[in-house]
Every structure is written in C-alpha cells, then in structure tokens.
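Final report, closing paragraph on structural work. Over the funding period we assembled a curated collection of sequence-structure pairs, and we close with a single example.
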Amino acid sequence: MAKKQKVSQDEMSFLDHLEELRWHLIRATLAIVIVGVVAFIFKDFIFDDIIFAPARPDFISYDFLCRMANIFGSDKGCVNEMNFIIQNRTMGGQFNAAIWTSIIVGVVVAFPYVIYEFWKFISPGLYENERKNSRGFIIISSLLFFLGVLFGYYVIAPLSINFLANFTVGEQVKNEFDIDSYIGLVRASALAAGLIFELPIIMYFFTKIGLVTPEFLRKYRKYALIIVLVISAVITPPDISTQVIVSIPILILYEVSIFISAFVVRQEARQLKRTERSKNKN
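Its predicted structure, as stored:
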C-alpha cells in the first residue's frame, strides 16, 4: 500500500497543524500585500486602462458585440455613448477606492501563489499516487480562475454597465454613479465569474471525499440548470440575452465537472483493484 508523505515527523499534533497553517496563511497574505502595493503605485494605469475601460463606448467588448449584431443585420448591440458619469461623494472615497482596488488586484494576481500555499498544506496528507494525479492542480485551478476573471471583466461587466447606464425611469433622472458602486460592479463581476469557473476543481475534491458522484451530477443535471439560470440572473442585469451568454460557459463547466468526477471514480476503482491484488499476492 502506498505510504503517505512524511513532512518533518511521522505524526503532527493539532497545534502543529494550526501553526503550519498559520505560516501558509501569512505567506499567502504577504504575497497579496506585495502585489497590492505594486498595484497602488501603478493605480493610474489600473484605473484608466482597466477599471474605467468598460465605461467608455470604445471598449473592445462593445466593438465585438456591435460587429456580431451587424452580422445578424441589427445595430442593437452597438454602443455609441455612455449616458452616465462616475463621481465621488465622500472625502476619502477615491483613496478608499484605490486601496480596495489594489487589494483586489493583489488577490487576483497572487492567486496562483495562494493556491500553491494551500496545496503545500494539504499535499502531505495525500498518497503518492494522489499527488501524481494532482500535479496540474495549481496550473489548472489558476487557469480556470483567470479565465473566469476575464469572462467577468470582458462579458458580464460591460453587459451589466451598458444595461444599467441606459436604463432610465424618466428623462428628468440622470445617471450619476458613485465610484464605489461602479467599482463594486466590476469587482463583483470579475471575482464571481472567477470563483464560478473553479467548479470543476471543487467537484474534483467533492468526489475525492465522497460528497458527489458522476451519477449524482447526471441525475440532478436539470436542477443544476435551474441553479445556473438563477446564478446568471443574480450576477447579470435582467436581460435574457445576457443571462443566456453567461449561462452557456457555466453549463459547459458543469458537464466538464461530470467528466472529472467520473475520472476520479475510475482512478479510485483502479487503485482499489491494485491494493486487492497486492493483498492477495501477500
């Protein structure tokens, strides 16, 4: 039978585990802070070219949507102007926005290292074959997270901003959004999508600990569809086309999760057969 990896000693007490976890958390937090400080130094670039880019009609997503609309003989998706302004209403509003945005940038950029620290903490408790089958964990989870962030930034955020900027209840009401409200929408769109795209990784671990099986995921696929539509409705404006656009990649991720869950079950079955053969030989 495969032996578990030894760290510094054969067995660790609960307090030893807490101490080790504390240092992993400290290093992960330090990485976020360092990236956040760098982001604060380059805050002009981050705000002008990244944060406020979806608030301009020449944003790349609007150009793409306009071209797609033209292909189908419509100009509904074209954005010619943004009927709103972003303003600050409090003394420390811009400074607080810069601080919190820098922290969020730190979380996003340092995500691979944070996952690495998490992996370093749990990997000693895995068997050798489990570690071999999970070597790409950091790369895959980071790739999925970044894909989700990009999807949230280039798809969910601009669609939401465009819808809310052009929605009015009367001509006498002008859209003047507070900076915290605007940044909060962009931040929530990117981070929510990034976490949702981690669904295959989550299902991998849920399958490993026995919480879900591929049969369970297939059986409740129709309920998952409803949940996906609800999630799409929560993180997007009340526009059917936008909700469909957001739902498609989530449904694809769900199907990928079923495949991954089935792969884990097959691997565990093979490992069980090897163990039984080894016992029979002995």
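Residues 240-281 form the longest helix (42 residues). The first strand starts at residue 85 and ends at 87. We thank the funder for supporting this effort.
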